[in-house]
Amino acid sequence: MSKKPRSLVRAAFSAVTLVMTMLLLSGCGNYMVLDPKGPIAEKQLDLIIITVILCSIIIVPVLIITFIIVWRYRATNKKADYKPEWAHSNLLETIWWGIPIVIIIVLAVITVRYTHELEPAKALASDKEEVTVQVVSLNWKWLFLYPEEGIATVNTLTIPEDRPVRFEITADSPMNSFWIPELGGQIYAMSGMSMALHLQADEPGTYFGTAANFTGEHFENMNFQVNATSDAEYEQWIQEAKSSPNTITDESYEEMSKPTEKEEPTLYSSFPEGIYERIVTKYMHDGAELHQHGSASADETDAAADTANANSEEDSSAHKGH
Questions:
Q1: Which of 73, 88, 121, 304 is in Cβ range 3.0-4.6 Å of 196 for a Cys bridge?
Q2: Is the pLDDT of residue 78 over 90?
Q3: pLDDT beyond 70 at 228
Q4: Do residues 91 and 135 both lie within one domain?
């Protein structure tokens, strides 16, 4: 779909959606899903629009015909034909069964195509270097680790615009869902698993990030600001983070992982090497297999599992010593 027709279709779709929504809601904010700022969100919106148009081919005529039938065959209309013996029409049966079947087939083909194209673990095509961010869902905060830069943040995320970002996502809390609506769809964060999600911001700006899954009393506080900046500003931000007096140690992480009501955005200049892998394998038993979805190499997975098993053996020996 070229840019001009796509813009016209989106404008029409947004106008119809706005009118329909205004009948039900008032005081609504920004329609973030309908205002994509990245290639993944763009294609997801295309799928939404195509799906709504295809479904409207069935729904709109049905609603119109329903109104016409109710109006024409009302009790006070004496001009309507009276056919008590009428029971079947091959033409009408073909229309109201054939058209929906064709639309369902078309919709299925389009959905399968987009599903494979928008596979979260699939890297984005780009001539620019990819940025890796490891994400940990905690109660009730988000921890972001930048393994290549050796820095970390809580409840704030900064990425360079027009560069692909690879998110590796897990949880040290109940299952949650990581979502930046203007950049792409959500993906679950689960303990014992590492999920991959590739996104990109096409332009600089500040975007809304949130937890899209209920995880307890203060889950509504799990919102974070996504700052998409130029490469120069991104490098400047990295240096700012590296000069932060805050650091994450194994001990301070244990304190951080405890439930808190509201955590302010914070920068950390360092964190223990391999902490993400240890978080992923934290609740694994001996011999358990690490579940991943395109988020780590086989060597990294084996190393993380070996570390978890070694820690488990040390804990067992310590308990026996007592």
A1: 121
A2: no
A3: yes
A4: no
